[in-house]
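User: Last request for today: this protein with zinc ion, please.
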Amino acid sequence: VIESIKAREIFDSRGNPTVEVDVILSDGTRGRAEVPSGASTGEKEAVELRDGGTRLQGKGVHKAVMNVNQDIAQALKGTDPFNQALVDQMMIDLDGTENKRKLGANAILGVSMAVARAAANSLKVPLYRYLGGTDLELPQTFHNVINGGEHADNGIDIQEFMITPVERDSFRDGFEKIVNTYHVLKKVIEEAGYTTGLGDEGGFAPDLSSSEEALQMLHDAILKAGYTPGKEIAIAFDAAASYFFNRETKNYDFEGKTYSPRELGEYYASLFEKFPEIISIEDPYGEEDWDSFAEFTEKYGQQIQIVADDPVCTNPKLIREAIKKGMANSILIKLNQIGTVTKTLEAIRLARKNGYTTMMSHRSGETGDPFIADFTVATNSAELKSGAPARSERVEKYNQLLRIEEELGQAGTRLAHFPDNVDYD
Ligand code: PGA
Ligand code: ZN
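Assistant: Here's the final one, the structure of the complex with zinc ion:
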């Protein structure tokens, strides 16, 4: 059973405070987890509890830490750590709010992840096996190598320009191709006379004049690295369009021009035409603009993956609505948007059941915790975005996948603690 729970304030990759949780079981096993934090957060995300006031720019998490150490620790003492659904539901009930604002999603998620880890440790199995089903596979990874939008101080309004391995002999082989392309991209940026400083997710943040220029640079880098764009390495981007949606005019103020929703769709289509190696686009429209999002999906959903992040925030209720509306054909999955392991699993199952793909995601503020690498494999999420192949908080996830690939070579016993019995209606 759960013996004790202790949280503390630690710091994330941006130097902001975040929550770390240790869960100790009665057999002496410990599970530890660290909570990430976004910058371009969706409005409907579960609430990240911050102290306010003047200490650490108001971003302290002492309240969230206290909520873990007092209320949550007390409530969960003696609970079965192998019953993740019960543990998570107890915290949701204890919080009692729709968006976890009382205890804080950062408090609840830290405990939820740490309990899963403690349970896996207690059984002496890797986390991906503990949480996982059968026939586990390594994901296709999406690497943000040019950062714009809220993640960098440059003139590009698209937030993330990603490269992804397509044809590969193994996970390691695909990752090596990404690393090669990343290093060549640095040269391409240098030769064009720009600086090669990094943005929040480890990608370069050159002060380019347009998103099209960024795509051209990726295209050139793929070629110069010796690969065929679209064959070995493809391109994806996250527009994170909520951040250039004009709430008054309902238009999009993008890189010095104003676009109606339809014009913006035509602009994206022109990019797809110019760069046929683009295979995935995330949040092409603002989080309130569901009509445009659905219309865009109807037009382009057959030819390209369209990922919904901010409009649905890993929330099963919102995902259900989005599916009804025919919005997107893929769902971005972030544990801290919804706040528990169990709810995240429900979001994944719901999306899959309806023919949507799922892309697991890091946050722009990350920690060294590779939880999502294991979680991606465990849920066979097929896709993961975790930033550039640079900066330890990003690379640690990929390194963990390299380790898992090594292990998956051997047959392992299946330990499925999450039977597929969630009721979606
Ligand atoms: P965030 O960005 O972590 O800053 O929210 C990631 C994303 O928008 O996908
Ligand atoms: Zn996004």
